[in-house]
Please model this.
Amino acid sequence: MDEVEQTARALLTDRGVLLSDIAALVYELQAHYHPGLTLETCLANVDRVLSKREVQNAVITGIQLDILTEKKALDEPLQSILERDEGLYGVDEIIALSIVNVYGSIGFTNYGYIDKLKPGILQRLNDKSSGICNTFLDDIVGAIAAAASSRLAHRKAHVE
Model:
């Protein structure tokens, strides 16, 4: 594992996101379509998604912007936009979609679904009362789960 991958994984952990949290989202998205699916299989797919450089870059970029927002280190109006997680901003979703796109268009559907429902860890990451800025992180976590779900779907189709 190189420095970029180590950094991306460490940033997720430092921000309170365990890979098992993401695997639980994958399980929620895919259990209906994959009888016998295990959390271990979901975790293996999350791990493979995180091995992609494009994903690592998105994780590092998004989390760094969240951290800079918490430190009030950004110029206005960006500082306020990110603090509020303004709905019309959309750049956080664009970074997430760069992750989703790694495994094809099926990931867009998975991402839209999970981003709307915000199950599991996504609910905690969206809690604005915590004082922690997760404007990018919640979308990144959802995108990793969606990409891992897409990877599962592609592998199942290949086997069939």
